[in-house]
Amino acid sequence: MSDCIIECHNLETAYAASLNRPILNGINCQIKRGEFVVLLGLNGAGKSTLLRSLVGLIKPVRGEIQINGMTVTPRTLPKIRRDIGMLFQGGGLIRQLSALENVLCGRLGVRTTWQTLLGFPKRDRLLALDLLEQLGLRELAEQKTSKLSGGQQQRVAIARALIQSPQILLADEPITGLDVVASQQVMQTLSHLHTQQGMTIVAVLHDLGIAAKYAQRAIVLDAGRIVYDGICDNLQAQFANASM
Ligand SMILES: Nc1ncnc2c1ncn2[C@@H]1O[C@H](COP(=O)(O)OP(=O)(O)OP(=O)(O)O)[C@@H](O)[C@H]1O
């Protein structure tokens, strides 16, 4: 099995007239299995676009992406997506459903309509409850997610992403809008997945201190290009020349 789990070769996405350039412009990077990488950059640098490209939500106009050695194409996407969990800013939960039901939604991609029509199979429910337990939310399993705090909601979203046992977790601004305590809980959860389960994590963050505390490696984007790729030392300096 190759060491690299994510590879981008000369990745270029569509030209944006408003920017006068492609949104991503010649991205080359390799992420190794089990790495915790943070994606940094000013607003509009292309971080979300890069994450979304990895799961085929954005089609490159040039270059290619390989996940687990497989080139991302419409044919390989269903298999590739089973290996990737995705976490969005704010969690993206269904507010009127319970924490448990939201976690079970992570199984919709692998269950047929018939299999879920009368409720999810018992083993899915047990798995969802187990994940909620691991994330310290077992008592809140039946609670509507609209009643949970921001940090609790984000941990439900992590459980939802984990129910498909992904090898890779992509997190787009997972702590934006959370207070210090909730941010720490979410980052510690990601860190735990990385150290205890060897999960590959790529997270978009804005806080350089938190990035340096949890990630092993930073990739800094500026105007659609990678301008730094390395250890999380002195990240402040990497922003000194970023286009404002
Ligand atoms: N579909 C689109 N059409 C045109 N421009 C787009 C499209 N999607 C994104 N952009 C532009 O591409 C640039 C990069 O967007 P992206 O969301 O990837 O940036 P980001 O680094 O994640 O920014 P932020 O930190 O603000 O979330 C932005 O200037 C955005 O306006």
TrEMBL record:
The protein's matches in Gene3D superfamilies, at most eight in alphabetical order, are given as: P-loop containing nucleotide triphosphate hydrolases
**Which residue intervals define the domain ABC transporter in the entry?**
6-244
Q: Which Pfam families match?
A: ABC_tran
Gene Ontology cellular component annotations, sorted alphabetically: plasma membrane
**MF terms in GO:** ABC-type phosphonate transporter activity; ATP binding; ATP hydrolysis activity
Signal peptide boundaries: none
UniProt-listed PROSITE patterns: ABC_TRANSPORTER_1, ABC_TRANSPORTER_2
The UniProt entry, under SMART domains, shows:
AAA
The record's section on InterPro entries has: AAA+_ATPase, ABC_transporter-like_ATP-bd, ABC_transporter-like_CS, ABC_transpr_LolD-like, ABC_transpr_PhnC, P-loop_NTPase
What superkingdom heads the lineage? Bacteria
UniProt cross-references to SUPFAM superfamilies, sorted A to Z: P-loop containing nucleoside triphosphate hydrolases
Q: Note the PANTHER family from the entry.
A: IMPORT ATP-BINDING PROTEIN, TRANSPORTER, PUTATIVE-RELATED
Q: What is this protein's record name?
A: ATP-binding cassette domain-containing protein
- What organism does the UniProt record list as the source? Halotia branconii CENA392
